[in-house]
Design goal:
Helix content: over 70%
Shape: elongated
Oligomer: single chain
Order of helices and strands: HHHHHHHHHHHHHHH
């Protein structure tokens, strides 16, 4: 960039900082400049969002995040980098993830990339974001996170995210995860199956319920209740129906 252009960008940035009404026009002119100038705008906004967040000026940080969403694809790569690699606060990565959700389907490839992050919190946030966007490209990566991720929080979030997809393979993956070693994952799997009203899961849920009711320990009471509530959602049978009633239930023809 030329010295003259840099001076111009500084004057434009002052308009943003001062919340000057002329900022919208200045933003448009800024975006008509070179790629280097556009990248400078993204970098300024990311830095401003980070500094504001770290000093607990959430309103200012939110204002910067809204600007990044407006920039859409220009800001995508940087937002993905913040989510995947940034060493700043979790809250900043959370704001980056929210921006990516607001940008929508264009964010999906970058969010899938974030699922490879060594930071489980980044994988967790990317998993949540993919569920909120519920673009079909995210389905198989989310199934992989549900079954393969070594962090139970990520698996739990994947179970929640998959409930936003109606694809049969989402339901099948959730059914397979009823045997997860972590009860909090299993609980969300059951809840998601109920939200989806996934009919083929009923026999698996009934047998799972039979096993833990046979166990009879008080620690299984919340899970037993959750399974029964899910069975009620899917079958419309009373929540306290017998196991035999659940076993003999058949979906209405055409469903």
């Amino acid at each position: 960039m030329t010295g003259e252009e840099k001076d111009q960008l500084r004057s434009y940035w002052e308009l943003f900082l001062n919340q000057d009404p002329r900022w919208q026009e200045a933003r448009g002119e800024w975006l008509q400049m070179s790629e280097a100038a556009r990248n400078t705008l993204v970098e300024n906004l990311i830095r401003y969002m980070s500094d504001s967040f770290n000093t607990n000026q959430i309103e200012k940080a939110t204002r910067a995040s809204a600007e990044l969403v407006l920039l859409d694809r220009i800001a995508l790569e940087t937002l993905v980098a913040v989510l995947m690699y940034d060493k700043n606060a979790l809250g900043l990565r959370t704001m980056a993830a929210r921006c990516l959700v607001s940008i929508g389907p264009a964010s999906v490839p970058g969010l899938i990339q974030c699922l490879e992050s060594p930071r489980y919190r980044s994988r967790y946030l990317a998993t949540r974001a993919l569920g909120m966007i519920h673009d079909e490209r995210g389905l198989d990566p989310l199934i992989r996170m549900l079954t393969d991720d070594d962090n139970f929080g990520v698996r739990r979030e994947a179970a929640i995210a998959l409930s936003n997809f109606q694809a049969d393979r989402a339901g099948k993956a959730l059914c397979r995860t009823l045997e997860d070693s972590e009860p909090m994952v299993v609980e969300k799997v059951i809840t998601s199956l109920g939200k989806m009203k996934y009919l083929p899961c009923v026999p698996r849920l009934v047998e799972h319920l039979a096993r833990i009711e046979k166990d009879g320990s008080s620690g299984t009471l919340p899970l037993r209740r959750r399974i029964r509530e899910t069975l009620q959602k899917i079958t419309s049978l009373d929540v306290d129906s017998s196991l035999d009633m659940y076993r003999s239930w058949k979906p209405e023809q055409g469903k």
